[in-house]
Design brief:
The chain has about 240 residues and is α+β, with helices and mostly antiparallel strands. It has six helices and 17 strands. A hairpin with a 5-residue loop joins β16 and β17.
């Protein structure tokens, strides 16, 4: 078995935690790590795919540099032996919904995955997924039309609205007759900038975290310190 882990970065590796996760990721022998650094994310993905096919890779596993992930995620996804299977993660804003669509309605709009109705494990057949944590067999790329522009920006076919480059690729995969699955136990963390504030809450000081859309979360001082120690231990371990 041979394959390519394609690392898509808009910088040289934006987050140290990503680098730690990548270093600890288990992978089969004959696995190549291929970086594509560009502000053109679609172009970077296409470059990785073309180089992987030229090198004879049997699969491509995409990982973006603003994510963290468990060390066994690649081996876990490979064990399913599916044409296309993905890990999953949440958006960094709004309702923090999954970056994946359960289906597409007749009007062309995507139906989001409802986390409240999902089990804690298993495979879920979906319509589209974000690019990070996406495992695709080489035969899928060969079957998809418009080579070498597997990923591109623009409108969804026959629709007046736009989608991201990963969702447009998933449209092509569906059109080519392949199924896309999500492994509910293959979870990724979506890294997000955060401001930490001293916060006076309920007549005592707490640690405040400002994240997307002005949302602020509060944590008691003792629990925040314990959480920070746990993160340090996980990184050093």
């Amino acid at each position: 078995m041979s394959g390519t882990v394609g690392i898509v970065a808009s910088d040289t590796g934006r987050y140290t935690l990503f680098s730690v996760a990548l270093t600890q990721m288990e992978h089969p022998p004959n696995t190549k790590l291929d970086w594509a650094i560009s502000t053109d994310i679609a172009g970077a993905r296409n470059t990785i795919v073309q180089r992987a096919l030229d090198a004879g890779s049997e699969w491509v596993f995409f990982m973006d540099d603003d994510h963290v992930f468990p060390h066994d995620i690649l081996k876990r996804l490979l064990a399913h032996d599916l044409d296309m299977v993905c890990g999953w993660y949440l958006r960094r804003a709004g309702q923090f919904s999954p970056v994946a669509a359960a289906s597409r309605e007749e009007d062309g709009l995507y139906t989001s995955i409802d986390l409240t109705k999902l089990p804690g494990k298993g495979l879920l057949k979906i319509w589209a997924s974000g690019g990070a944590g996406m495992l695709v067999k080489a035969e899928v790329f060969r079957a998809v039309s418009d080579q070498p522009d597997w990923f591109e920006y623009g409108r969804v076919k026959d629709r007046d609205w736009h989608a991201s480059e990963d969702f447009i690729f998933c449209e092509k995969v569906n059109e080519a007759g392949f199924d896309i699955f999500l492994d509910l136990e293959a979870q990724l963390g979506h890294l997000s900038p955060c401001a930490i504030w001293p916060s006076w809450v309920d007549q005592e000081w707490a640690v405040g975290f400002s994240v997307a859309d002005g949302l602020r979360l509060y944590c008691p001082i003792e629990k925040a310190a314990a959480a920070a120690d746990a993160v340090k231990e996980a990184i050093s371990g």
